[in-house]
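Technical annex, item 7. During the second reporting period the consortium partners agreed on a shared format for inverse folding records so that results from different sites could be compared directly. Each record opens with the tokenized structure and is followed by the designed sequence. A conforming record, contributed by the partner at site C, is shown below for reference.
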């Protein structure tokens, strides 16, 4: 059997941590009850959900009743955005869903950008803010964009492609000064750096389980006490009446355990990830010199994320030459035409640079040997 490729795509998804898998298994067969049932089986399941809610709240510095479990990070962002705009009018918020205004950035994940495109069909106005050459939003642009009809500012905490961190605390303060809600997608940040909702000052925050060593198919939305949202999914009164659907207990248990592990691992995990990322970067610079160019902020970025352009190459073609490395690219060649990542376009990265972009992201189970071997293979393929 051929050896498995070296996995450097942790920003795409993470493997399930063995400890997470272990706590999930009993809830797939033995403790299979419906968490809404009042008998012993239901009480077991309910208690497990309560524990998981507290574990995730602990990671975020939130209250347990501020955690709403969802089926994915995308659902959480959809709920935050649509729920903010479509909630019933109160005071200055105006007509239901119409004449509302939302502010996002040009580098948001589709789970943020596409709900806004949908809301535009209902009459909502959306302002898309530019970013600088590092992929960062200027808080002053947010201040200038807010109007009396603005209901929500939604800016990602960290960018999934280049890792740049946004000044969320400053942006949230500006939004609140104007009476506007603040949402941030922190899916990429958790388990890599500390994320505290009180310190960030946000009202809503997105969590994706599969980005922090929990399974795919589970996520959560932090909803600050006192914030009211229109429901995205209607039905019975699960999740405190905020999200209908029988709780996916095994996956919620897994997400809770993953959050507990992440909280215990910080800040050491941050330092470890940064050391591996920088080791990889240095090896590639030694091998390719100024033929590799960093995309994203050199310091204010995720500790595990390295987005590099290999000059003179097309990222997708380069990776095809290195089947021993599993990574992502920000460009592709179709019918002789090279497409560039919308994030790099928004950062105004020149096409001749952006076409060679490759995203390398390390994680919890990355080893030094893997970093060194991957760098050697990439250098050889780019030479």
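Designed sequence (site C submission):
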């Amino acid at each position: 059997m051929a050896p498995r490729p070296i996995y450097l795509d942790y920003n795409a998804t993470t493997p399930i941590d063995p400890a997470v898998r272990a706590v999930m298994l009993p809830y797939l067969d033995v403790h299979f009850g419906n968490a809404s049932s009042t008998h012993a089986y239901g009480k077991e399941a309910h208690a497990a959900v309560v524990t998981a809610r507290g574990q995730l709240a602990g990671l975020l510095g939130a209250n347990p009743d501020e955690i709403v479990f969802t089926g994915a990070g995308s659902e959480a962002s959809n709920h935050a955005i649509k729920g903010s705009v479509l909630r019933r009018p109160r005071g200055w918020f105006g007509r239901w869903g119409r004449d509302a205004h939302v502010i996002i950035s040009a580098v948001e994940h589709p789970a943020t950008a596409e709900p806004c495109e949908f809301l535009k069909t209902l009459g909502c106005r959306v302002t898309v803010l530019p970013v600088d050459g590092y992929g960062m939003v200027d808080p002053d642009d947010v201040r200038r964009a807010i109007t009396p009809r603005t209901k929500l500012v939604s800016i990602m905490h960290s960018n999934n492609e280049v890792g740049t961190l946004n000044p969320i605390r400053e942006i949230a303060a500006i939004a609140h000064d104007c009476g506007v809600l603040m949402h941030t997608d922190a899916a990429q940040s958790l388990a890599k750096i500390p994320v505290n909702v009180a310190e960030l000052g946000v009202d809503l925050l997105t969590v994706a389980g599969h980005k922090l060593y929990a399974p795919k198919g589970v996520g959560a939305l932090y909803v600050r006490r006192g914030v009211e949202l229109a429901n995205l999914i209607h039905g019975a009164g699960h999740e405190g009446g905020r999200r209908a659907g029988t709780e996916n207990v095994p996956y919620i248990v897994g997400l809770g355990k993953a959050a507990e592990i992440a909280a215990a691992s910080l800040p050491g995990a941050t330092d470890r990830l940064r050391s591996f990322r920088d080791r990889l970067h240095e090896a590639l610079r030694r091998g390719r010199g100024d033929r590799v160019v960093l995309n994203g902020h050199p310091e204010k970025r995720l500790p595990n994320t390295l987005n590099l352009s290999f000059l003179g190459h097309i990222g997708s073609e380069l990776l095809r030459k290195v089947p021993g490395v599993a990574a992502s690219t920000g460009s592709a060649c179709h019918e002789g035409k090279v497409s560039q990542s919308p994030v790099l376009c928004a950062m105004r990265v020149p096409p001749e640079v952006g076409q060679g972009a490759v995203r390398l992201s390390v994680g919890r189970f990355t080893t030094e040997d893997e970093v060194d071997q991957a760098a050697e293979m990439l250098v050889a393929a780019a030479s």
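The CA atoms of residues 114 and 329 lie 22 Å apart. The longest helix spans residues 40-60. All partners now use this format for quarterly exchanges.
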